[in-house]
Amino acid sequence: MSHRQGDQRATRRAGAFRRSIAVGKNTPVSTRRTRFVVDGRLTPAPEGVSVAEAMRFAGEEPGRMALCLFPTPSAEDVDELAEAWALHPVLVEDLLHAGQRPKLERYDDVLFIVIRAARYIDDIEDVDFLEFHVLVRANAIAVLCQDGRWIDGSDETSLPGSSAGIADHTLLDDEHLLTLGPEAVLYRLLDAIVDGYIPVLRGLAIDKEQIERQVFSGDAAVAERIYRLSQEVIDLQHAASSLTDVLDALQSGFDRYGIPEALRTYLHDVADHLTRVETRVVELRDALSQILSVNATLVGQRQNEDMKKISGWAAILFAPTLIGSIYGMNFETMPELHWAFGYPVAIGAMVALGASLFVVFRWKKWM
Questions:
Q1: What are phi and psi for residue 163, nearest 5 degrees?
Q2: Strands 33-38 and 41-43
Q3: What is the pLDDT of residues 314-339, one digit of tens each?
Q4: Which residues contact 75 (CB under 8 A, 6 or more apart)?
C-alpha cells in the first residue's frame, strides 16, 4: 500500500468520525422514506406522509406495520420521530449523536439498537464501518443511517424511492416473514449486516496472503502494512463481538416479549453466522500476530547478516591500519625504516593479511 493510500485512509477515517459527532443538522429537506406493510405485503405510502400519520396507519388495524427509513437523518427528522413516538429524552440524545458501539436498550415500549455494518474498500485496502440506529415498537420500526449510506455503501441518492429500492429488497422482500411484525424487519437487517462481514473477511484474507509474500520478499515497508491490517481486524472484531452481545440480549427476551418461534429460529441462524465470523476474525488476528513475529525474526536475521559483513570489512581494514600505525611511530631504533625492502614488505604484509582475512570470511560465508 502506498503512502498516498495511507493518507486517503486517514483522511476518510477522520471524516467519518467528524460526521459521527452530530446528525446532519443542515439538511434542508427530509430524505425520509416511509413504507406501509399490510398482512406481510408492501403497500405504497402516500407521498409526504408524516411519521405521526404512519403511526396512526399502523395502529388502525391488526396486521399493519410502518417502516420509516432515514437515509440522512437531520435534527428535524429526529425531533419529528421523537414527538410521534414519544421518545425518552435520553434516547433522543443518542439519536442525535452517532459514533457509538453496538448496543441494545429498552425505553418503555421502544427497543433501541445500535449496529454497525462493514464493507471492504479494495482500492485503499480499508474496512469502512457504517452505523445504524434502529427503533422498534408495536407495528412500527425506524432505521436511521447515521453515515448517510446503506449497508453496501450506497448513499442517499441510491436509497429506495420505490419498492424496488435497495433497502426494500433487503428488508421487505419476504411476505411470510413480514407477517410476524417489525421484529422481522430488524432480524432481516441484522442478517444482512452479518452476511456483509463475509466479503470483508475475504478481502482481509487476500491482504494477509499478499503480506505473507511481501514478508519473505524482504520488503521493509511490510511492517507498517501488517500493523494497519491488524487495526482493521481489531475494529471488525469489536463490531462483531458487540453485535454478539446485542443478539444475546435479544435472545434473552424471547419469552418475556413473546417472540414467535419462527423469528427465534431466524435469530438463532443469524447468531450462528456471527459466531463463524468471530471465529474467522480471531484466526485472522492470530495469523497476523504470527506473521509479525516471523517478520521480526527475518529482519533480525538480515541485520545479523549485515553486521557480519560490516564486522568482516572492519577486520580486513584493521590489518593494514595496524601495520601502518606501528611503523608510523617513527622510533629511531626501528631497523625496518632504513631497510631498502621495508616499504614493499610492509605493503605486501598489509595486502596478504587483508586477503587472508577476506578468504577466511568468505569461507565462513560472512562476506
A1: -65, -15
A2: antiparallel
A3: 777 777 777 777 767 766 667 666 67
A4: 22, 23, 25, 96
Q: What global pTM score does this model have?
A: 0.73
Angle between helix 261-327 and helix 182-216 axes, rounded to 10 deg: 20
d(C-alpha 189, C-alpha 168), whole Å: 11
**pLDDT digit string (tens) for 84-111?**
999 999 999 999 988 888 899 999 889 9
Q: What letter represents residue 202's amino acid?
A: R
Examine the pLDDT at 301 and tell me if it is beyond 70: no
- Bridge partners, 119 (sequence order): 128
* Cell representation of residue 347: 605493503
